[in-house]
Amino acid sequence: MKRRTFLTTSGALIVSFSAAKLIGPLELAAQAPGPYPDPDFRQLDSWIVIHENNTATFYVGKTDCGQGTGTAFRQMMADELDIDYDKTACVMGSTDVTVDQGGSGGSDAIQTDGWPMRRVAAEARRVLLDMASAKLGAPVEALTVSSAVIAVKGDPAKRVSYGELIGGKKFHVALTGSNIDATTGIAKVKPVQDLTIVGRSPERYDIPAKVDGTQQWAVDVKLPGMVHARNVKPPVAGATLVSIDESSVRSLPGFVRVISKGNYVAVVCEREEQAIDAAKKLQVSWKKPDAAPFPASPDLHRYMRSATPTSSSNPIVVGNPDAAIGSAAQVIEAEYDIPFQGHTAFSPAHATADPSNGQITIYSNDMKSYGMRNGVAAFLKVPRESVRVIWREGPQGYGRTAADDAGFEAAYLAKELGRPVRMQWMRNEETAWDTKGPAFACNLRGAIDARGNLTAFEYIARACDYNHVGYNEPDTVLIAQLMGIRPSRPAAGSAATPGEMYAIPNRRMAMHVVSLPLAFETPLRTGNLRDPNGPQSTFASESFIDELAAAAGVDPVEFRLKLLSASPGDDTGFKRARSIAVVKAVAEKYGWDTRPSPRANRSGDILKGRGIAYAFRNQTVVAEIAEVEVNRATGHVWVKRLVCAHDCGLVINPEGLRRTIECGMQHSLSRALHEEVQFDTEKVTSTDWISHPSLTHRDAPETIDVVLVNGDPNPHRSDLPPYGAGETVCKPLLAAVGNAIFDATGVRLRRVPFKDARVLAALNTGGTG
Amino acid sequence: MSSITLKVNGASHTVDVQPSTPLLYVLRNDLDLHGPKFGCGLGQCGACTVIINGVATRSCVTPVSSVRSEVTTLEGLAVGGKLHPVQQAWIDEQVPQCGFCQNGQIMTAVALLKRTPHPSDQQIREGMARTLCRCMTYYRVQTAIKRAAGERA
User: Fold this and answer.
1) Are B91 and A208 in contact (CB under 8 A)?
2) Does A70 touch chain B (CB under 8 A)?
């Protein structure tokens, strides 16, 4: 039976798409039988629809991972279109109705994709003014626009609304641009000074449905004839499937099928709890690999330091670091270690795929839904036009859904079965097998001359990041790996340089990538975890800068300001000036007391201290201060206060940005205090919220202060760009906390997370973590 | 399969499921109440929280056959179209990021405030300690609970 026929004859069964909810464009589009050609980004109608009731719907190729970008898109486009914010709506991320802006990633939603959105909205305004000019018999120069109504200046009775001009009809206006980011019409965007909706803080439109239970999440999709699937993963990384005893589950209630190819195994049942039960009971025989897939987690960094790199970048060398180190009054050396840290998304991976009408529709929270569409089409070897991804809200993205295994699995199973399939990973499966932020092993050296000046800085990083996945490639998602598919050239991976503007006369920075023995079908596959390498590299570099400040006997803020001010040179975005501004701003907001670390009085059971760290990411600069209380008896660290000074250029929604900064810092706080993937030589052993703890309400700071700096030296610049927020705040936090612990205790911790036992051991030995 | 009758948000429902089926799947898949979410299936994160007899209960580890009293889900908090004060505080404070865990945060906070109408900071931290959020909205959740408790009204 064709899907459409089914819908019309058995509508009563379609619970999630009940008549009352069939109102939005997504719900209507969900019934389109296909195929699904790409919306043309060079057509204005692909971006903006004006309705007869004088409202507008914006169609953008992004997804909102929970930072309120959808609200920001509406603000920017409403501002350029001259329509009230609350008369607009935004549709995101569904590949058949929105242009392909790549979905989310890299904190670039506002920075990159906001520009074509603004330009097309400005173009729509221009076209509407031309139409009004003809209709009202007045030149465009004689017209004025307010709240989607165009009137003749000085003669307000002569007026026409956008809805009257074009409501329900199409613009049929072509746009230009060599690629989607360059999309433009003839109209220019407004100077920043003329924007009135940008810079205000309308409440996020998605929040009410998320607190009253009406939000339709990707996990909620329910289709006629849908069945439930669960994976059965190899018990040991690199194991080979020997045999499946289907009789172990065949008589279970609701059993539909076991589907298997290569080392990929899934069980399908009519009901969800039946699938969970069947996946537990399915008897599968596996052969362990001949060699250990990886060292156990306590041995990881030793392994990483001795492994031959799979790739090395050309070192960045300034001056003569060896000579400076050779003639230094003091040479400081340190090793910093960061373990694998998982995404551990709050909800395990999930997706529902529908094979009706010979097409594949995937309902997914994939932040890069467009990539999934392309990847699934290639994976299933079907035309792109037969595949679409309908994006719906889901648990925080932060990179996990950029390698969205569940969508591929649901699509594969749906095609095999000819029925809609809902795939849902389990908690232990997700925590063990999700993508991981790469582990880092960093070696640092610094030279200080007799006057306390930093004369050389050496940073050598090794990242365990070979075969990095993260873009929904059809040959790197886990189901493809388990089926034996291999990319011709695995991604090289990368090890980042620190993002700072310190003027140090002699430097060497070298980056290497190493691989674990098992590069495929491994639960230790690396992906993009919220500023993929920034927290790791910045933990090492900004902690070490603090060590150098202490060795020089200089206050940590003063030490950084001196390094930032040592060169007058700046870049086109005034990054040096803005770096100095955020360091000063965070110190001022905190009420920083200038003195070297550690503090002199370190007696008592609760030791208090403060630490600063700073970083940039692209053109966004942040400085953060953590105030800690360290319990000398237990080793427990509580970050009592966090302060952030943040400069991301033009701010679209200040309150939304504050929330994003607060949460981003707390996410990194979780990485600083708790998060560490643990494994033996066969498998990941930290697989739930007990064995892999996360930040909890107990850890929340008592106070979080955010200062939005926006330190462009020329406030009258009409093109003050937005630089993108979200990930930058994740970078310095680990170091800020470590530096605060040093200030409080005099003990330097060079490995995260700062778990109680690790801190206590360091306090007791007076050594390092 | 057994026929089991449940009272949820004021209405009675009869479902035909295995008695051991976790309440979560009956609420989500049979009654189409999507407030409670699957997060871990282990009672560790709180995503699936419902209120039974005034107690925040993890529906993912509660067999449906063990439920003896009325179940309230996120959808059942509002009365006569008016949001529960906790829900309103969540909007006023703009608490959620992705929002996926917020069912657990809200339901646990509602039960906490019922038990302790004016909780101290420490009581909030302890009362909410087992309700996780991976967007780390903790600071705002705690602010919103204080607002709902009237301390910031």
Assistant:
1) yes
2) no
Give the pLDDT of residue A766.
80
Q: What residues in B contact A704, CB-CB < 8 Å? A: 139
Which tens digit of pLDDT belongs to each residue from A458-467? 999 999 999 9
- Rounded CA-CA distance A706/A663 in Å is 11
State mean pLDDT over A125-151: 98
Domain boundary among the residues A215, A239, A262 is at A215
Q: Is residue A556 domain-shared with residue A693, that is, in the same domain? A: yes
Q: For residues A378 and A250, is the Cβ–Cβ distance under 8 A?
A: no
DSSP string, A515-578: --S--SS-TT-B---SSTTHHHHHHHHHHHHHHHHHHHT--HHHHHHHHHHT-----TT-HHHH
Instruction: Identify whether the C-beta of residue A14 lies closer than 8 Å to the C-beta of residue A46.
Output: no
Of B18, B22, B96, the CB nearest to A66: B96
pLDDT at residue A20, rounded to an integer: 35
Tell me the chain A residues in contact with residue B142 when contact means C-beta distances shorter than 8 Å. 697, 700
CB contact under 8 A, B100 and A346: yes
pLDDT in tens, A515-541: 999 999 999 999 999 999 999 999 999
- Identify the domain boundary among B25, B56, B76: B76
Could you tell me the pTM of the whole model?
A: 0.96
A155 and A237 in a single domain? The answer is no
For residue A594, give the CATH number of its domain.
Answer: 3.30.365.10
pLDDT at A572: 86
Q: What CATH number does the domain containing B123 carry?
A: 1.10.150.120
Q: According to the model, what pLDDT value does residue A711 have?
A: 66
Type of residue found at A594 = T
Q: Using CB atoms, which residue from B37, B94, B129 is nearest to A659?
A: B94
Asked if residues A386 and A358 have their Cβ atoms less than 8 Å apart, the reply is: yes
Looking at the domain assignment, is residue A686 inside a domain? yes
ipTM: 0.98
Residues with Cβ within 8 Å of A586's Cβ and at least 6 positions away in sequence, in order, are A612, A614, A623, A624, A625, A643, A644, A645, A707
CA–CA distance, B64 with A254 (Å, rounded to integer): 18
- A292 touches B at CB < 8 Å: no
Domain that holds residue A65: 25-215
What backbone torsions phi and psi does residue A296 show, to the nearest 5 degrees? -65, 155
Q: What is the pLDDT of residues A493-509, one digit of tens each?
A: 999 999 999 999 999 99
Among A215, A241, A273, the domain boundary falls at: A215
Which domain does B124 fall in, by range? 85-148
Is residue A154 assigned to a domain? yes
Residues A63 and A114 in one domain: yes
Residues B46 and B91 in one domain: no
Query: Span B28-49, mean pLDDT?
Result: 98
Same domain, B132 and B94: yes
Q: What is the mean pLDDT of residues B83-87?
A: 97
B95 and B54 belong to one structural domain: no
Give me chain A's average pLDDT, please.
94
The CATH code of the domain that includes B58 is 3.10.20.30
Interface residue A699 vs chain B (CB under 8 A):
yes
Judged against a pLDDT cut of 60, whether residue B151 lies above it is answered with: no
